[in-house]
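Illustration 12: DUF6917 domain-containing protein.
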Amino acid sequence: MIIIDPYKAGMFEKNPYAKKRDILGSLIVVLDGRLDERGLQLIAPISRALLAGEIHELILTDEEGAGPNKKVNKIAYLGFFEVSQSGVMVTGDDIYVARQKIGRVAGFDITHMPNHLNIVIYSDERTSGLEKGLELGTEFKCSKPNS
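Figure caption equivalent — predicted structure in token form:
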């Protein structure tokens, strides 16, 4: 049996996710740190399902062109959040923390799976969660742009 990944095969000309609900959660860890040579390898698929109760890591990058199937080196650690409302996260989605947009989903790194997913977010500012003044319990939201 041959398995074909439609993302790697370039079968989609545009993002197929026409409508989807927001993913909600809250920060359970605030991180402080940044690296210039992290070497995260973003996977080819543009989406991941996040289930209620799961815990995932949020990482910021200011590298232009960060996206699926790319390597990301310059990062800042934001924190970990627990999903309270499940959904599907897609590259290009807007990420809000404390009701402020902090960037858009660049892609996903699976280094630590099945423990947690690294969600890499493109942002103009590569600042850590501590530098942003985030607190435990801070609201997290992932939304399709313009929704």
